From TrEMBL:
It is found in: Mitochondrion inner membrane; Mitochondrion intermembrane space. GO terms for molecular function: GTP binding; GTPase activity; lipid binding; microtubule binding. This is Dynamin-like GTPase OPA1, mitochondrial. Its EC number is 3.6.5.5. The lineage of its organism: Eukaryota, Metazoa, Ecdysozoa, Arthropoda, Hexapoda. It comes from Lutzomyia longipalpis (Sand fly).
Length: 982
């Protein structure tokens, strides 16, 4: 009825217990139903409602006045509740700034008065019941004036639209992190404080804190600087690790994309569509040959003497800037006086329609015309350099290879090396200087390498370190090109005659085939290559030294002339040496193939990647074989493993303490308590360990069985063992299995009555075999403790030691105690210990009490286990006696508590084994398969792992032979293309 009235009239009311007046709820009123028809308030039902509204006197009221009063009250209540909702939404937004919100909340007025106005649930429920009494009469009697209805609907629609707009604005403000409406007043307060005191609020707080602690402002600033520096370093380290992680994933995806692209090209070439084969540029083919040679022989002990341009120079001499000018792009990370080049960077320059760059092991191209992508390229170069530096080193020998293409670029291969330093700073490794010298000598020792010697023209020539190294490697200067950088600064600082002598080759003792002067910028990091080239061109046009003297030839200046000269010399040396390198590799290939045929005549040359793929398939096949193991075999393995883990606890912590108590009642009570604690804590975890070990055992057995196959190749053994060990180390049983097993085990242990003869016999057999196992272990312990028996001494020529003979004498005294009292408790009394010790003293043996107790423990244990074994024999035929007497009197004439205990243990082991077996077959085998695949995927990307696990002469010889074949093929392909270009 309340819902009908609410839909009819559009308002809600609350009632009182005595008068039950109708109270308007201003948040739900519908004006279109209050006044209408021709009767107005003269209608008897309407007059009844108006006489019971809050704020109205119970008297006759005119229709017009009634309508005006209702509209006024509704408007007031609606505005209150709308602003209340709006304030709540704004309050939600202000929680985004906790400190400002606390200050704002203290200034809010108390809103508890709303609790007395708004109806609660109980009052609303009473009101709805009261309205049912008048609902029928009111529903059919009220008529609505169409004119008032139209006006009310228009007003209501207008108010609703206004409120929805304000509510949407409030919600948007609540969801915005920085709300200017909220932060404005506080910003004004902050500005006011700043104007009054001349400092910000934060500075005032810091100042008061420093004064309170008695710390000077200088010390506080130093402490803050150190703290900020530490935070920055931590953030940089974290960012670097994250970048390395994502870079590894990106490289993996790029390799997969590259493989897919190659497969697509192969499929596309197989189609008879008449498309032309993709043609590589000559310089790209040459760069690939160099990459193959570098990977084949990093020490240059073989025939890797192909030409390349090696850029060497002192640190901060402008070496990298020269290379960037030749490449026409700022592609290297830059710094101020610090070492930025930490690893060799091989740059292959090639002419192309677009100015782009990419790394040789990646498919992504960087648009060098966009500053954003240039910045990303520089970050990637820096990241790769830092990633290549390992083991606390400062520089690395790992080469970073990249290709730069663009209009007007000269085709050549350049290698940028770390700058030569004179002093090792505290943030460098101690061997940094020697490492750079060794690396530079290594690259320059190539007899066909073109040495691009960079000398800073703004410093004294006597301070140069690179010229001595160049002279040692190329004393005649037949492959050295000297480049003087920063000549714009040199013109201001140095004498003109000195610069002319340098460019004429008359100042340095070193010799060169060419001397060049270049300007690599104005020392501004943000200058583009175009700006640098324009500046260089203007300088050489206006320079007094180079323009009017006539000493320096025009072809000796500018980066453009330098790149032309280097490229010309580069290709001349390539044509002179490439044929010799190809012939040398033909001889190397022939020798390797002959050695392979002599050592492995019936095997194909398989590299590490191919061998790894084969081993991967065999390992995954063994995982699949886990699903072929029968359920019966799984139960046997799991049950055996489970009892091996539980037997010690069952005997030592449950059975022996309870059985040695001497009372059947205390036996059952103690067993129930210990089993309950065991099942609630340790048993589920032990069961999961048993399942884990059983799965591991079966998988390793499958691996071992595969080794016995006639087709087994032992070259995979190390790899398989490493993969399996790593997968098992990572693998863990499902977490929820422990809780599931706990419930099953607790319910099973609650059962104490054996109702089946077959189960009784199985329990007796289980009890008997367990006792025999423990008895045999005790016998072995006693044999080690007391030495061989008399029979063994005579027949097997065994003798007892003095210690064993001493133990044997003590055992003789203890045997007398057991013979005299077959039901002796597990511990010796003080009198018994004293008696044994004095008897041994009479025999000439001095022993202490602890020595007697140590001897007593195995003696009594064997005696007790023999008694338990007799009870097991008696229990074979005691089932019917147990059933009848247990049913009639609740007990049994013979002691069968041992059998009942082991029956309960056996039942809990059965249900546990069944649950573990189902979980292994349904889930755990697949989860182990998943871990093994993950390890294999990681190892497939780790070349160091492959080299570590796939070893032997067969592997190394095959790898070398395959690499030489590949290099020779690329050399022949390049030579054919080079001859066609001639």
């Amino acid at each position: 009825m309340a819902q009908i009235l609410r839909g009819k009239f559009g308002f809600s009311v609350k009632t009182s217990r005595s008068l039950r007046p109708l109270v308007l709820n201003v948040s739900r009123i519908n004006f279109s139903t209050l006044n209408g028809g021709n009767g107005g308030s003269r209608h008897p039902h309407r007059r009844y409602l108006l006489q019971h509204n809050v704020g109205f006197v119970p008297m006759y009221v005119t229709p017009r006045r009634t309508y005006a009063m209702i509209v006024a009250r509704v408007l007031r209540g609606a505005l209150k509740l709308r602003y209340l909702v709006l304030g709540g939404a704004i309050g939600g937004g202000m929680t985004l700034n906790k400190q400002k919100y606390e200050e704002w909340r203290d200034g809010l007025p108390d809103m508890k008065w709303l609790d007395d106005i708004l109806p609660d649930n109980e009052q609303w429920h009473k009101f709805s019941k009261n309205l049912q009494a008048v609902g029928g009469a009111v529903r059919d009697s009220i008529e609505i004036d169409p004119r008032l209805k139209k006006i009310s609907e228009e007003k209501l629609a207008e108010w609703r639209a206004w409120f929805d707009n304000r509510l949407d604005n409030a919600i948007e403000a609540a969801e915005t992190t920085e709300n200017p409406t909220i932060e404005g007043p506080f910003q004004k307060v902050s500005d006011m404080i700043t104007d009054m005191y001349g400092v910000t609020k934060e500075e005032l707080k810091a100042k008061h804190l420093v004064e309170a602690k008695g710390v000077s402002a200088q010390e506080e600033a130093h402490r803050k600087h150190q703290s900020m520096q530490q935070q920055i370093e931590e953030l940089q380290a974290e960012m670097m690790s994250v970048q390395l992680k994502y870079q590894k994933e990106l490289e993996k995806l790029e390799r997969e994309n590259k493989n897919l692209r190659q497969q697509y090209l192969i499929l596309k070439s197989n189609r008879k569509t008449g498309t032309k084969k993709i043609k590589k540029s000559l310089i790209d083919m040459y760069s690939e040959v160099l990459d193959e040679l570098s990977g084949y022989d990093t020490n240059y002990t073989m025939a890797d003497h192909l030409p390349r341009v090696v850029v060497v120079g002192d640190q901060s001499s402008g070496k990298t800037s020269v290379l960037e000018s030749i490449a026409q792009a700022r592609i290297f990370p830059r710094g101020s006086g610090e070492m930025m080049t930490r690893a060799p960077v091989k740059v292959t320059l090639s002419e192309g329609p677009y100015h782009v760059a990419k790394f040789n092991d990646s498919e992504r191209e960087y648009d060098l015309t966009k500053e954003s992508e240039l910045a990303e390229l520089r970050r990637e170069v820096e990241l790769r350099m830092r990633h290549s530096v390992r083991g606390g080193k400062t520089v690395s020998t790992d080469t970073i290879s990249m290709t730069v293409k663009g209009p007007g670029l000269q085709r050549m291969v350049l290698v940028d090396l770390p700058g030569i330093i004179s002093t090792v700073t505290v943030d460098m490794a101690s061997d940094t200087k020697d490492s750079i010298h060794q690396m530079t000598r290594h690259y320059m020792s190539n007899p066909n390498a073109i040495i691009l010697c960079i000398q800073d023209g703004s410093v004294d020539a006597e301070r140069s370190n690179v010229t001595d190294l160049v002279t040692q490697c190329d004393p005649l200067g037949k492959r050295t090109i000297f480049v003087l950088t920063k000549v714009d600064l040199a013109e201001e600082l140095a004498e003109p005659d000195r610069i002319r002598k340098i460019l004429a080759g008359k100042l340095f003792p070193m010799k060169a085939i060419g001397y060049f002067a270049v300007v690599t910028g104005r020392g501004r990091k943000d200058d583009s290559i175009e700006t640098i080239r324009d500046y260089e061109e203007r300088f050489f046009k206006t320079s007094k030294l180079f323009h009017r003297s006539g000493t320096v030839m025009p072809h000796q200046v500018s980066t453009r002339n330098l790149s032309l000269a280097v490229a010309d010399r580069f290709w001349r040396m390539v044509r002179e040496t490439i044929e010799q390198q190809a012939d040398a590799f033909k001889v190397t290939r022939f020798n390797l193939e002959t050695e392979w045929k002599n050592n492995f005549p019936r095997l194909r040359e398989s590299g590490r990647d191919e061998l790894f793929d084969k081993a991967k398939g065999e390992i995954l096949d063994e995982v699949v074989n886990l699903s072929q193991i029968s359920s019966k075999k799984w139960e046997e393995v799991i049950l055996t493993t489970l009892w091996d883990k539980l037997s010690s606890y069952v005997f030592e912590n449950v059975y022996l303490p309870a059985a040695q108590s001497g009372s059947q009642n205390s036996f059952n009570t103690m067993v129930d308590i210990k089993l309950r604690q065991w099942a609630d804590q340790a048993l589920p975890a032990r069961a999961v360990e048993s399942g884990y070990e059983a799965l591991q055992k079966e998988f390793l057995e499958l691996i071992e069985q595969a080794k016995k196959s006639p087709d087994h190749d032992d070259i995979f053994d190390n790899l398989k063992a490493a993969v399996v060990d790593e997968a098992i180390r990572r693998y863990s049983w499902e977490d929820k299995a422990t809780d599931m097993l706990r419930v099953i085990q607790l319910n099973t242990l609650e059962d104490r009555v054996v109702t089946d003869k077959h189960e009784w016999d199985a329990a007796v057999k289980f009890f008997e075999s367990s006792v025999k196992e423990k008895l045999q272990a005790t016998e072995n312990t006693m044999a080690e403790m007391f030495g061989p028996s008399s029979w063994q001494q005579w027949t097997q020529w065994k003798y007892s030691t003095d210690e064993q003979q001493k133990r044997r004498n003590v055992k003789g005294e203890l045997d007398k105690i057991i013979v005299s009292d077959a039901k002796h408790p597990p511990t010796l009394s003080y009198d018994e210990l004293t008696t044994v010790r004095k008897n041994l003293q009479r025999a000439g043996l001095e022993v202490d009490t602890e020595y007697i107790r140590e001897t007593w423990y195995p003696v009594y244990r064997r005696h007790f286990l023999k008694q338990a074994l007799l009870r097991a024999y008696d229990g074979r035929k005691a089932y019917y006696l147990y059933v009848t007497q247990n049913r009639d009197r609740g007990d049994c004439a013979i002691n069968v508590n041992d059998i009942i205990l082991f029956w309960r243990i056996q039942q809990v082991m059965k249900v546990t084994t069944n649950a573990l077996r189902q979980q292994v077959i349904n889930r755990e085998a697949r989860r182990l398969d998943k871990e093994i695949k993950a390890v294999l995927d990681e190892y497939s990307e780790d070349e160091d792992k492959k080299q570590q696990l796939l070893t032997g002469k067969r592997v190394s010889l095959a790898e070398e032979l395959l690499r030489v074949r590949k290099i020779q093929e690329r050399l022949e392909e390049f030579i054919n293309a080079l001859n066609k270009e001639k």
